[in-house]
Amino acid sequence: MGIQPNGQLGNGTFTTTGNQGIPTPAQITGLTNVIAISAAGDTSLALKSDGTVWAWGDNDVGQLGVGYFTTSAPYGIATPVQVSGLNHVIEIAAGDGHSLALRNDSTVWAWGANDFGQLGNGGQTAQRQHR
After folding, report:
1. 77, 64 contact by CB (below 8 A)
2. Quick one: which of 7, 9, 96, 118 has the most CB atoms within 10 Å?
3. Residue 126 has what pLDDT?
4. Domain range spanning residue 81?
5. CB atoms within 10 A of CB 93
């Protein structure tokens, strides 16, 4: 029986081979013109040359930036989805339950968990919406 990850491999499934994951590299379909990647925990981000950010994997605290968080297993999205309302990005970073983007106008954007103030917005409330 395979383990149930949160889609962090981006291969469209939530299961892996045996209990060890998938032991050989495989291309993530649907992503082209990627210029940067970042991953932390069970979340992955890709920055495309057009300045859009794509995410997949765990979304239990809204760290994928899709406008909602996933409240039942599996807790993620298994294929890349575009981060909502964000463009002109030049750099990305994935944290433990949160994500960050630097835009070409020098503004920094953050989303996801905020229990320790990691979003830098002066509060401790996650930036997410229920679905």
Report:
1. yes
2. 7
3. 57
4. 1-131
5. 16
